[in-house]
């Protein structure tokens, strides 16, 4: 992982508005060898955007397994229903949230829409192709990836059914870990994937999510925080 430059590191250190733990620890699927994936959102001071060299849209580090997005980029991705971004926004393991971060969390529902179906299932389809390639080349799938694909599809189904994104797998922990350990026949895993994909499709037609996210509400939020930042720097 490339280390961030001093300016980028300063943005993460001094201007983070929201930070959380994602990945297996947030999903409730952590085991003894699991990493701790940290994600965050920083608000670059508004005057930085008035220069030719703009602030970065994202920063890797400075800590291991740490990745942060500038607030506007984070919101853009969330409006597109990016699975990783939405799961970050709904992580049960929040490590930091200032006033702006708390307002961002309060806006979680405004990002949700039926675009979740295309984004989550599209990501799942890409993962499935990689699993099939592993099966052809190596004679076996990567069981950890199979586990996370099942988790993603179940999460999408429940979100489409209820309008609520729940990150922790809860009672599904042990069945999913059995898949990770390779204890479930591949034919059964394939059957679960197919069934979950079909359930996602039905839920997308009948569920409570709006057709589009509340883009205007998010844009108003961004405008207010950018203006407040400019006034503080003035």
Mean pLDDT equals: 94
Shape annotation = globular
Oligomer: single chain
C-alpha Rg, in Å?
19 Å
Distance N terminus to C terminus? 36 Å
Order of helices and strands: HEHEEEHHEHHHHHHH
- Supply the CATH architecture of the largest domain: 2-Layer Sandwich
**Count, helices:** 11
Strand percentage, roughly? 5-15%
Low-confidence stretches: none
| Total discrete domains | 2
Helix content: 55-70%
Biggest sheet, strands in spatial order?
3-4-2-1-5
CATH structural class of the largest domain:
Alpha Beta
Structural class: alpha+beta
Report the CATH topology name of the largest domain.
Beta Polymerase, domain 2
Would you count the extended β strands for me? 5
User: Strand count, sense and closure of the main sheet?
Assistant: 5 strands, mixed
């Amino acid at each position: 992982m490339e280390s961030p430059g001093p300016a980028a590191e300063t943005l993460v250190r001094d201007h983070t508005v929201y930070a959380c733990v994602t990945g297996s620890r947030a999903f409730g699927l952590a085991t003894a060898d699991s990493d701790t994936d940290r994600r965050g959102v920083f608000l670059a001071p508004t005057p930085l955007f008035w220069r030719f060299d703009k602030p970065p849209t994202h920063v890797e580090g400075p800590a291991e397994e740490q990745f942060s997005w500038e607030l506007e980029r984070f919101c853009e991705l969330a409006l597109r229903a990016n699975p990783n971004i939405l799961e970050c926004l709904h992580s049960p393991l929040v490590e930091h949230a200032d006033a702006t971060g708390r307002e961002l969390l309060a806006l979680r529902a405004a990002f949700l829409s039926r675009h979740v179906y295309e984004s989550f299932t599209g990501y799942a389809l890409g993962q499935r192709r990689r699993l099939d390639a592993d099966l052809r080349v190596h004679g076996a799938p990567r069981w950890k990836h199979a586990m996370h694909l099942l988790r993603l599809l179940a999460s999408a189904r429940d979100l489409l059914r209820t309008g609520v994104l729940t990150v922790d797998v809860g009672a599904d922990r042990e069945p999913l870990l059995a898949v990770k350990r390779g204890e479930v026949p591949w034919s059964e895993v394939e059957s679960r994937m197919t069934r979950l994909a079909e359930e996602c499709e039905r839920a997308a037609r009948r569920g409570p999510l709006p057709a589009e996210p509340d883009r205007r509400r998010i844009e108003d939020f961004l405008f207010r925080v950018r203006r407040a930042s400019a006034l503080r720097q003035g």
